[in-house]
Amino acid sequence: QVQLVESGGGLVQAGGSLRLSCAASGRTFSMYVMAWFRQAPGQEREFVAAINKVGSSINYADSVKGRFTISRDNAKNMVYLQMNSLKPEDTAVYYCAGRGATIDYNYWGQGTQVTVSS
User: Fold this and answer.
1) How far apart (Å, rounded) are the C-alpha atoms in residues 82 and 78?
2) Cα(90)–Cα(21) distance, rounded to whole angstroms?
3) CA quadruple 70, 73, 74, 77: dihedral positive or negative?
4) How would you write the pLDDT of the chain (118 residues) with one tens digit per residue?
5) CA-atom Rg of the chain in angstroms
6) Taking a C-beta distance cutoff of 8 angstroms, is the pair 82, 12 a contact?
7) Phi and psi at residue 40, in whole multiples of 5°?
8) DSSP strand E in the chain: where?
């Protein structure tokens, strides 16, 4: 089992930056593919970025490419999302998620709110 806790959300002006962190519990953290998702009010949850077990494969949603960077530190059981050049449309609750050999992400954090003002 893996438990995930996000932090680092907040209010920022357009063009600003935030760094989200996700702390994972469990000794098998390095076995998991980790990702960030987000959900804006009235919208479905959407994929933001994912990173494989060793950080050699990374994927981003087109809407965040070139602005967001996902990374992980397996020694610290942490996953990060560096968000630069933030836009009002990035406003959402951001969730950390993890999976092992399954296709679906089966571990989720409680979410952290990111609000970008224009």
Assistant:
1) 13
2) 17
3) negative
4) 789 999 999 999 999 999 999 999 976 766 789 999 999 999 999 999 999 999 999 999 999 999 999 999 998 999 999 999 999 999 999 999 999 888 899 899 999 999 999 9
5) 13
6) no
7) -90, 160
8) 3-7, 10-13, 18-25, 33-39, 46-51, 58-60, 68-73, 78-83, 92-99, 107-108, 112-117
